[in-house]
Amino acid sequence: MILYVRFRLAPALETGGVEAALPALLGLAEDISPVVQALPPDAALIDVQGAERYFERDAAQLAALLRVRALAHCGVDCAIGAGPSPMLARMAAREAVPGTTLVVTDDETAGFLADKPVAALDGVGTATARTLCAYGLDCVGRVAEAPLAVLQRIVGAKAGRELWERARGIDRTTVVPNAAARSIAAERAFNRDELDPVRHRTALLSIAEELGLRMRAEGQVCRSLTLTVRYADRSTTTRARTLREPTAHSAALTGVAYRIHESLGLQRARVRSLSLRAEDLTPVERAARQLTFDPADERARRIEAVADRARAKFGPRAVVPGSLAA
Fold first, then answer.
1. Residue 242 CB-density burial (10 A; 0-12 exposed, 13-18 middle, 19+ buried)
2. How many of the other CB atoms lie within 10 Å of CB of 14?
3. Which phi and psi (to 5°) does residue 53 adopt?
4. How far apart are CA 34 and CA 29, in angstroms?
């Protein structure tokens, strides 16, 4: 069985955050099983097949042991999903509340997946889900019943086969110990619980500029962006969006961040902090960019390149957007 663990800050722990405690939490997980893959900022995958035999305990019992240790040593609670594959473990973890474990066995896989919206499957973004829904394939059960050839005509040969397999609970990914980090994140905390959407947007602009600069300096681009909003009551909302093309262009990242923020409808929400995570990083030389005839876009990219050289020489605050300089 595979465990997908979402770590959540316990109410008694006010500072530091889960990301700061993640190395210690991974150490606790490795005491149970050596096959642990970190998923910053607040999650991990753990293959406990060997641990089940060694400790003579099932996945739910091992999950309970990890939860007690995480709370005792780090002040962090866990919501844990257990399943025969990483995909099923992740989906189970989304439905588990902190302090609980949701286990999905092989026999329960079809029933567990049947009524889920198609967007719940790995690799199905907003555009793909919209296309599938237009054909009446709005839930995983209907996708699983559709002929493979039909899915391949709708979304393409490779994507169609992957979709067909995932709808049947087939996941060929594995837990990769010590996997290289494939994401970077930045956060902005407000001095007080913030209601002003203008302040929210200013914070998002600042974060997107930071992430873009870091990726360009490391020669990387990202394929998706995740926004996490932390509220005054310590609850959080997380939304992710796949980019139209891999990019490290700050303007593109900012636009996506704004659209995710607007989709949440936070007009009266008291926001304590905002964080963005650029995910699925890949070297820039392996990514393709759609050529454009828009002179404004090309000019913005040239200006960005000049600004990056100035920042490298004089520091990151040498060139900043006007709204951040005020």
1. middle
2. 10
3. -75, -40
4. 8
Sequence letter at residue 78: C
In three-state secondary structure terms, 279 is strand
* Residue partners of 261: CB distance under 8 A and separation at least 6: 197, 200, 201, 204, 227, 229, 274
Identify the DSSP state of 1: -
Q: How far apart are CA 213 and CA 207, in angstroms?
A: 10
**Nearest residue to 174 via CA among 281, 80, 85:** 85
Q: Which tens digit of pLDDT belongs to each residue from 282-294? A: 888 876 666 666 6
- The one-letter amino acid code at 115 reads D
pLDDT at 228 over 80: yes
Q: Which residues pair with 4 in a beta bridge?
A: 45, 81
Mean pLDDT score, 104-124:
89
Task: Kindly list the distances between the CA atom of residue 31 and the CA atoms of 26, 75, 77, 159, in Å, as whole numbers in the listed order.
Answer: 9, 18, 17, 38
> Residue 82: what residue type?
A
In DSSP notation, 60-125 reads HHHHHHHHHHHHHHHSEEEEEEEESSHHHHHHHHHHPPTT-EEE--GGGHHHHHHTSBGGGSTT--
Structure tokens at 317: 């605050």
Using CA atoms, how far apart are residues 90 and 121, in angstroms rounded to an integer? 10
CA distance 302 to 249: 11
CA distance 151 to 132: 9
Cβ 225 vs Cβ 253: under 8 Å: yes
The Cα 254–Cα 258 span in angstroms is 6
Condensed to tens digits (0 to 9), the pLDDT of residues 254-268 reads: 999 999 999 888 878
Three-class secondary structure of residue 298 per DSSP: helix
| Alpha helix segments (H runs only) across the chain | 17-30, 49-55, 59-74, 86-95, 109-114, 126-134, 140-145, 148-155, 157-167, 197-218, 250-264, 295-314, 322-325
Nearest alpha carbon to residue 281 among 37, 48, 120, 40 = 40
Upstream peptide bond of 41 is cis (omega within 30 degrees of 0) = yes
